[in-house]
């Protein structure tokens, strides 16, 4: 469903049940493990202003939750009434705080003076300080540079600059930390030119022997390896196991497309009608932010398969599946394009091929969920890739099933895609002590640290769970930085 279709659907349902009392104010896309959905803000339109009633989730099939009822409206009115009775003025005990600003007529600053004392942009002040290069100026740059880290697109360059400044003031430990952080940023975007600049600085800091095997060296080699182009589409993982007869039939439908940097392959929300496989170069995956705009969440290197939504689910020419992301070339790239009809015909004859396409789709869904997750989104793309590689299986349970028994160290951690997991103590299934809802983790900390929980985890009927192998999670933590382990410990 498109944003406009979701808006119209919810608005029509509200009009049918509540007339002009309720209205839609915002529709935004949210990322879920089981697939994308829409979050719709419903308000009570009153003369004094909108009152928030509820946020409704609508999936791509049009199903919404929760169903808005009279209780939601009543709760919104009660909240507004309680807010109207809050004290409008400052409590007596705080009245003297600030030294009586309202008492002096000349306490309001002259707005003309503000124009005179307005500071230069931080970027200009940093550039001027670095150009001067003396100790005082370098200290000024050290103080200002962290303010520039908020610019997501230039975060890697800022970190590299911070590393260079720390080297000049002879703080090698800080310089090394900033260097490694900048290298991770560049590797996320496969920005080889900038990654090589970080490598040059790392050689100066560590020496040639120290550089070999360092995190910066490892990231550089991994990025170079991943950018090796493929000669044929049938050398890629998804297509490599196709038998010769099916390869010959499919080859007639494979077309090669060349993209210049910045060219858009597909846009989020438009009909998805083709499968794409990256032959060479880099293709960026851009997702819409809930607050507006787009965010580059990963770069796809040669061999990546994209656009699998076009062949999963029933074919429907009148209402085709929609692209879940915008795909853009990040450098000169070549992409194989295959029509959905041709791929679907091969999937019907080779079930294993169809299964590989479906698994790719689920991994991409979880990857999108990770990228927008409040906690997982803090991690570098390569760490998220390693987390994805820890997935053991996805399984759907048609009846109540014990997943993890109590008082035993779990061998797996869980991510709920659909349904829920009940946490049960002392075998009391009727009164669970906790519920793990969809899009939530369970057991990550216990699997990492080999802790035996006192509760059993039971999947309810209709629940789908992604299982992460505990041993691989442990090894991921052993070779990762402290902040990565801290993020994983907070999951769930």
Your description of this structure?
The two termini are 30 Å apart. This protein has 4 domains: 3-84; 123-226, Serine Threonine Protein Phosphatase 5, Tetratricopeptide repeat; 233-372, Sandwich (Jelly Rolls), CATH 2.60.120.10; 384-490, Jelly Rolls (Sandwich). The protein has a 4-stranded antiparallel sheet with strand order 1-2-3-4. The protein has 16 helices and 20 strands. By secondary structure, the chain is α+β, with helices and mostly antiparallel strands. Helices cover 40% and strands 23% of the residues. A hairpin with a 2-residue loop joins β2 and β3 (49-59).
What name does CATH use for the topology of the largest domain? Jelly Rolls
Strand content: 15-25%
What is the name of the CATH class of the largest domain?
Answer: Mainly Beta
The average pLDDT value, as a whole number, equals 85
Keyword list:
4-stranded antiparallel beta sheet; Serine Threonine Protein Phosphatase 5, Tetratricopeptide repeat; Jelly Rolls; alpha+beta; 4 domains; 16 helices; 20 strands
Question: What's the short story on this structure?
Answer:
This protein is of the alpha+beta class and 492 residues long. It folds into four domains: 3-84; 123-226, Serine Threonine Protein Phosphatase 5, Tetratricopeptide repeat (Alpha Horseshoe); 233-372, Jelly Rolls, CATH 2.60.120.10; 384-490, Sandwich (Jelly Rolls), CATH 2.60.120.
């Amino acid at each position: 469903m498109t944003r406009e279709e979701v808006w119209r659907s919810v608005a029509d349902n509200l009009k049918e049940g509540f007339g002009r009392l309720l209205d839609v104010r915002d529709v935004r896309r949210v990322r879920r493990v089981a697939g994308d959905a829409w979050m719709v803000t419903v308000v009570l339109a009153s003369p004094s202003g909108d009152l928030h009633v509820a946020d409704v989730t609508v999936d791509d099939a049009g199903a919404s939750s929760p169903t808005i009822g009279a209780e939601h409206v009543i709760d919104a009115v009660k909240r507004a009434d309680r807010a109207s009775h809050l004290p409008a003025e400052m409590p007596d005990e705080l009245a003297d705080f600030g030294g009586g600003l309202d008492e002096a007529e000349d306490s309001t600053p002259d707005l003309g003076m503000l124009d005179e004392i307005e500071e230069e942009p931080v970027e200009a002040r940093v550039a001027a300080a670095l150009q001067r290069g003396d100790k005082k100026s370098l200290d000024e740059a050290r103080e200002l540079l962290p303010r520039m880290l908020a610019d997501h697109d230039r975060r890697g360059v800022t970190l590299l600059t911070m590393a260079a400044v720390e080297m000049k003031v002879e703080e090698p430990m800080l310089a090394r930390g900033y260097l490694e952080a900048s290298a991770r940023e560049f590797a996320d975007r496969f920005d080889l030119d900038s990654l090589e600049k970080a490598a040059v600085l790392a050689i100066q800091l560590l020496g040639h022997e120290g550089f070999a095997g360092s995190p910066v060296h490892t990231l550089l080699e991994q990025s170079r390896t991943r950018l090796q182009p493929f000669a044929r589409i049938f050398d890629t993982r998804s297509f490599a196991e196709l038998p010769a007869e099916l390869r010959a039939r499919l080859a007639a439908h494979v077309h090669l497309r060349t993209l210049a940097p910045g060219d858009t392959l597909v846009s989020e929300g438009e009909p998805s009608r083709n499968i794409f496989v990256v032959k060479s170069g880099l293709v960026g995956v851009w997702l819409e932010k809930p607050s507006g705009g787009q965010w580059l969440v990963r770069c796809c290197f040669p061999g990546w398969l994209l656009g699998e939504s076009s062949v999963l689910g029933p074919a429907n020419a009148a209402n085709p599946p929609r692209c879940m992301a915008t795909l853009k070339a990040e450098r000169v790239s070549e992409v194989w394009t295959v029509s959905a009809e041709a791929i679907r015909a091969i999937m019907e004859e080779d079930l294993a091929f169809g299964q590989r396409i479906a698994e790719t789709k689920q991994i991409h869904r979880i990857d999108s969920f990770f990228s927008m997750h409040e906690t997982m989104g803090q991690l570098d793309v390569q760490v998220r890739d390693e987390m994805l590689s820890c997935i053991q299986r996805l399984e759907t349970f048609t009846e109540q099933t014990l997943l993890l028994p109590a008082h035993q160290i779990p061998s797996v951690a869980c991510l709920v895609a659909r349904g829920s997991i009940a946490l049960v103590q002392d075998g009391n299934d009727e009164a669970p002590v906790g519920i793990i809802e969809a899009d939530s983790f369970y057991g990550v900390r216990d699997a990492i640290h080999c802790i035996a929980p006192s509760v059993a985890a039971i999947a309810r009927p209709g629940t789908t769970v992604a299982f992460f192998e505990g041993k691989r999670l442990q090894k991921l933590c052993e070779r990762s930085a402290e902040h990565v382990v801290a993020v994983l410990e907070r999951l769930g």
